[in-house]
Amino acid sequence: MTRIQPTRFVFQPVQLVRPCEVVAYRITEAIRAGDVKVGERLPSEQSLSVQLGVSRPTLREAVKLLVHAGVVQVLPGSSGGIFVTSESIPPELCGFPLPDLPLEDIDSVMEARRLFEPHVARLAAIYATPADFERMRDAVRLSTETCAKFKNKKISDDGAQRMTIASTRFNIAVARATQNSMVVQMMEVMLRRMEVVRTLAVRQLPDISQSTKTLSDSLRAIESGDPAQIDAATAARIGLLESAWEMAAGKRLRRRSILQASAVAAGSKKTSAKTT
Amino acid sequence: MTRIQPTRFVFQPVQLVRPCEVVAYRITEAIRAGDVKVGERLPSEQSLSVQLGVSRPTLREAVKLLVHAGVVQVLPGSSGGIFVTSESIPPELCGFPLPDLPLEDIDSVMEARRLFEPHVARLAAIYATPADFERMRDAVRLSTETCAKFKNKKISDDGAQRMTIASTRFNIAVARATQNSMVVQMMEVMLRRMEVVRTLAVRQLPDISQSTKTLSDSLRAIESGDPAQIDAATAARIGLLESAWEMAAGKRLRRRSILQASAVAAGSKKTSAKTT
DNA sequence: TAAAATTTGTACGTATGTATC
DNA sequence: CGATACATACGTACAAATTTT
Hints:
Largest interface: A-B, 76 and 77 residues
Number of helices of chain A: 10
Number of strands of chain A: 2
CATH topology of the largest domain in chain A: Four Helix Bundle (Hemerythrin (Met), subunit A)
Order of helices and strands of chain A: HHHEEHHHHHHH
Radius of gyration of chain A: 21 Å
Strand content of chain A: under 5%
Oligomer: homodimer
Helix content of chain A: 55-70%
Structural class of chain A: mainly alpha
Largest sheet of chain A: 2 strands, antiparallel
């Protein structure tokens, strides 16, 4: 009898996550989304550990990670607690729940973004509540203010980070506006991967006010509810980051042109297909 | 001095995952995708533990989970090994890497699917390799054969499972055809959530051959490369599951009509917008 | 018939991290 | 906040089973 050959399939290594890392990640999610701002205080250790369903030592371990990353500060005493000191999250705290993807091919993330984000924005326009619009405006405001501060000066590290935060926060706000938890989860995964690109790319922009403009244009488009406007504004916003990334990386995104071309072709073909 | 109020934001409990659970999940992924078929043997424990980057005891723990779930069978000896015994994965093994989402609102998943899947299919049409098409054909074949077996009979439990497996496998094949790991990961998340719906819904179909037809139509559309055809076929495929689910659940999906209406409106507006 | 090779099965010591008090 | 107890995963080594040579 011939020996049954084992499968030629190869598995990718698993990435293990410790509870305290998951907890730290969850807290950074809230900070990234702008749910807690710089200077504000998080709930007490007691309260947090209950909310997150872990023991207090585990939560303390998580906080230690955040302190070490410079994201929060812990003060003792009766009016003390865990205070947010920075809204930019170091990449070390971003890589946990999404293994499997080689960091090199940022192409996949960019392409996926171009594929999904316009439709997320369209859906957001349908379901956004006043609170959602307020979050979006908040993000745009942050971007505008940061931009004004560096009007005629070179952008500083801190300024670049703020611009990144504003963009990320805007994206999260849009995703949440869909009122669809599945969509939010998927966008979260993509945004984490994009953050690194963002900080690297924003320094390459000849004029950071462009970034602010794409944000406010997107906001106006979503408020208008017109799909064509939304698509155009979203495409412009994505395109800006892509260009900046290409300059920073010194090479073109492999698939950028193909996807854009197909999108255009599909648009014109859609209406003419039946006539042939 | 007034006390700084802690944030009113509430955190969701974290869900801890053990390494053996992650490993078990990863193996089921390969089975679900059809990389290993029933009766075939997986690599040896030694090889698997190296590939997956875990110790052999941990891998054995994972295998134990799979054996208990009836997915694999372990035989000792020189020609022994880990053999696949079933291609339908119990839901217990499906829920690990995706916490946070209440199982009830299947609406979110369906809506997200309708939002993303057509564009994934379009991209697949651009990048699919012969191997990808072979995987798709494989899935269609399974569906066709199962369908033929229950030509004039009522569908059995086993038959319903096979139809589910075929649909899932087709979807994974399409996602992989995009050659975009980000897209694959996102689709994986969605498909896991959909599986439960699939098995429940497929029994409600008055004629299961409809399901097979939507698959082969989608395959033909992707082979043709015509975006309009792809959109139509994908919409039909999604629509069938949605209808079946509505019958099974006894209520309409909340947002189904809204999303479809907006998609149509956007399609017609897109081409006429610039002419005004 | 017997020995060799391959693969699963079992066990122990260590280290790390989490939970309880 | 600290200390102790417990659970879990790892690495290694060896034993048992079965087929091939």
